[in-house]
Description:
The chain is an alpha/beta fold. It folds into 2 domains: 6-16 and 98-225, HAD superfamily/HAD-like (Rossmann fold); 21-93, Transcription Termination Factor Rho, Rna-binding Domain, Chain A, Domain 1, CATH 1.10.720. Helix content is 48%, strand content 11%. It has 9 helices and 6 strands, in the order E-H-H-H-H-H-E-H-E-H-E-H-E-E-H. The chain has helices spanning 18-39, 44-56, 62-71, 77-93, 104-113, 126-134, 159-169, 183-191, 218-225, and strands spanning 6-9, 117-121, 147-149, 176-180, 195-199, 214-215. It has a 6-stranded parallel sheet with strand order 3-2-1-4-5-6, sandwiched between helices. Helix 1 runs antiparallel to helix 3 and helix 4 (77-93) runs parallel beside helix 6.
Amino acid sequence: MHGFDWVLSDVEGTTTPIAFVRDVLFPYARTTLPELITARADDRAVATCLAEIARLAPGISPAVALARWMDDDAKVTPLKDLQGIAWQDGYESGAIKGAIYPDVPPALRAWTSAGIRIGIYSSGSVRAQRLIFGHSDQGDLSGLISANFDTTIGTKREVASYIAIADALGSAATRILFLSDIAAELDAAASAGMRTCQLVRPQDGTLASDAHPKAADFSEITGLFTLA
């Protein structure tokens, strides 16, 4: 019998190729944002972002400010919010499909069938997570996911974040398996009491750590931990 109530998974480099964000999502937002902020300037969400841009970058046009922030990969709230709006438009129109590794859906289905619930914890917003899984190139996977967390609960390299997630899930940390490609995130989760597994996907250039069990894909995780 498995010893887990939850599998908690990272996204980039774990369920999703790192290149998807770099080569698909970011360029799509860069291309569509100038028209979006003009055509939808009266939408409440867009207007709120434009007001915040004006506060943060006075005297600079919103389009120029957004372009500069994207060049710098700045973690600026109005940029992230507007990117999310652009991506939602793209997903809903079919212009974007969320990239999910093909080994992921069968494992998620097997684990949920075995009574294990699936959570997602990513630095990308909860909305961005739901869009990737709900409009994926492997179909709509949203029904397999029971909880979503982003950095509003804490950053991914802080032990306190994983303690807070375990509390939110109503589970002992020892009954949660955390999956990520980043050793520092796995270290924090392990310090909180979670079990861990590092996804080492060659195409993502993952740096393997000797501190955690490793798997090349999700099918290996099932065998490694007897999850189903």
